[in-house]
Amino acid sequence: MTETERVPGEGDMWFFVVFESLVFTSYFCVYLYDRAQHEHAFLKAQSALNLPLGIVETILLLTSSWAIARCVQEVRAARYRSAQRFVLATVGLGVAFFGCKLAEWVRLIGDGHTFTSSEFMQHFFFLTGMHAIHLLIGFVVLGVIRYQLADPQHRSHQTIETCSTYWHTVDLFWVLIFALLYIVR
Amino acid sequence: MSLGASLRTDPKRELWFAWYSTVAFYSLYSVVFFVLTRTQPPGRPWLTPEQTVAWFADRHWGLLVGFALIFVLGGFSATSISLITYSIRRMSVSRAYAYSYLILYAIAAIPGFLFICVAMTVGAMRPERDPALLHWLYDFGFLSFSGTMGVFLVGSLIWMAAILLDKNGVFPRWFGYLNLCNALTEVVIAPSWIFQRGVLAWNGVIAWWIDVAVFGMYTVVFIYLLRSLIQRDDLGTGPVPAPVITG
Amino acid sequence: MSRSGERVIFWTLPAVAVIWIAAFLLFPGFVPPMSPKASAAEVAAFYRDHLSRVRYSMILFNWFCVALIPILMLLVERMRGMAHRTPVLRYCVIGAAGAAPIAFLTSTVFWLIAAFRPDRSPALTQMCNDLAWITFTCGVPFLIGLCVFVAVAIAYDDQEQPVFPRWVGRFNLVIALALVPACFAGLTLDGPFAWNGFVSFWVKNLAIALWIVVMAVVLRQAMDRDRVVAGAAA
Fold it and tell me: 20 to 30 A from B65, CA-CA: which of B59, B141, C8, C102?
């Protein structure tokens, strides 16, 4: 197999990426349809979101994606100690993102914008909540990478690449959610 | 090989018995819920008590006969569970995974489908009952049926973990990931406990239509994969006992 | 594999049987079975008049309906000796054996809720009573499944000395068939198929009782044979 044909990680992970993308796409379609029906109400509810915070969150996750990509590069170069540091950086950035997310939810709920307060907020909490669940699973996945790196016996480049694919997917979903919920006005 | 022969003389006949029963059970289940009782797609959660009276009247015999059939044949849900438990026993993971799956799904049958059968039968058998109580039975039926998803969530994750850890190649790895997709859609149904209308209500576009699409695909795929698992298995033809797989 | 302690479990059966029969007779709604045609006021009056007997009998059932599970597990253990290549049918029996008593347990919960506040509105008491009776009468899918799985397991037990005699398989199928009409108890409030009718109440419950007695006898024989074999091997 030549270098250009190679898909990172195991091919089966890409099945998950495609399938989960389809599921998320269907959620987005439902959101956009609902939004078209009640554009004014959505715009009004949307104004409660804090755009700068959303941008910070996006930068955090994009940086974490860069860190995990660097980790894979280091693994390919057999620089495992450096790879370990990049996994830790990814975890740190992920935790920072999750912290921002929690703070955002707490602030919104404090201001009376809850899961049941408006249709926009229903979609907002649903989509960000689903994303947060994917993110939490992502921490387990990062744990797998750390475990693999720590033990030379269990070091599988393929598994590490598969895990990093998952993390990139979580990042991709966030970018889409951010664009739809925060940017599109 | 014909159905009769595979159930009589095939060395894998227990497996085929369980597989054909699984197919029959899921077919019956679909016919009862979608055709006979018309409880799928589910009724609208925002009906008033008076409208639920009309809802019950509209499908009186369908509910009574359809759910009676589930009362007769619902026990066959155990066949797919056992086959999946067996598939996990073939994997290079601890038996704990197999037994967890078995016990989770066996008990899930009670809230998973027995409650809706009881609630709807009780609702249909006395059309003259106080509309407020019929309304309660209607909610009880749909909420217990749609909302009880934790067992399926944890069950799917157990199956997923077993498949991904397995080194015997019992299932393709993409199916392990499909289990995760299925588990994640089980989360999506939880808001049906909260919303009476909208996309997340028990008949909503997200909580019902997208979920059922994923669950339907998942079910068809796992029934097909169980079939290829049985076909691949080589259990020999010699005399038994000396079970090939114990436990 | 250790067989130790199996006889202890087996001899809990007479105790369980005594408790079940006592609870059955203590519940005032079983002999004769309550009529589904009773009005809400009559149902409410029934609970007011027989409050203690309803409560104590159903608490007994609530405690001990699951007591059959250990005995069913003895049956599952016997199935290991069958000429099967896989444990699939054993898993089927385990699944059905777990769910069946829980279905019965659910009906005791409804009966006990109905009796908890006898001053409740009669329509509510009637609904709890209906839920209890339908769960009790129609909630047999796992018992039917159990009988069929045991029947199939015996049919597939191709060896010179099968674990259970052949007729036990056919007997299980007959019992499964005897339970089927009870599933349709919701369709009528009257006649042999209503929940208090000859078929849905007496045939169904006597079939379950007969199944327990017959299976206990053949289980005992199979256990004795196992012990002889184990003794010879030792």
Answer: C102
Domains in chain C: boundaries: 6-233
pLDDT at B7 (0 to 100): 80
Vertex B186: Cα angle to A104 and B175 (nearest 5):
115
If we measure between CA atoms, which residue out of A169, A167, A14 comes closest to residue A90? A167
Domain boundaries, chain A: 12-183
Q: Is the pTM of this model over 0.95?
A: no
pLDDT in the model for residue B1: 54
Determine the pLDDT at residue B240: 57
What is the distance in angstroms between the Cα of B207 and the nearest Cα belonging to chain C? 28
ipTM of the complex: 0.94
The reported pLDDT for the residue numbered C227 is 82
B243 lies in a domain? no
Question: What are the angstrom distances between the C-alpha of A26 and each of A20, B218, C200?
Answer: 10, 17, 48
Q: Is the peptide bond before C192 cis (omega within 30 degrees of 0)?
A: no
Q: Do B206 and A19 touch (CB under 8 A)?
A: no
Q: Note whether residue B241 is domain-resident.
A: no
> Could you say which architecture CATH assigns to the domain A12-183?
Up-down Bundle (1.20)
Residue B163 sits in which domain range?
3-232
| C-beta atoms of B173 and A133 within 8 A | no
A88 touches chain B (CB under 8 A): no
Long-range residue pairs from B167-170, CB within 8 A, at least 24 positions apart, any chain: B167/B92, B168/B90, B168/B91, B168/B92, B170/B87, B170/B88, B170/B90, B170/B91, B170/B229
B164 to chain C, closest Cα gap in Å:
22
Contact A19 B200 (CB under 8 A): no
B211/chain C closest Cα distance in angstroms: 26
| Residue recorded with tokens 């003389």 | B9
pLDDT of residue C4: 86
Instruction: Find the helix packing angle between B115-125 and B131-147, rounded to 10°.
Output: 160
* Cα-based angle C60, C64, C69 (whole degrees, multiple of 5): 165
Q: pLDDT of A127-173, one tens digit each?
A: 999 999 999 999 999 999 999 999 888 788 899 999 999 999 999 99
Chain C neighbors (3+ CB pairs < 8 Å)? B
Q: Closest Cα partner for B206 from B233, B226, B187?
A: B187
Cα C148 to Cα A131: distance, rounded to the nearest angstrom: 45
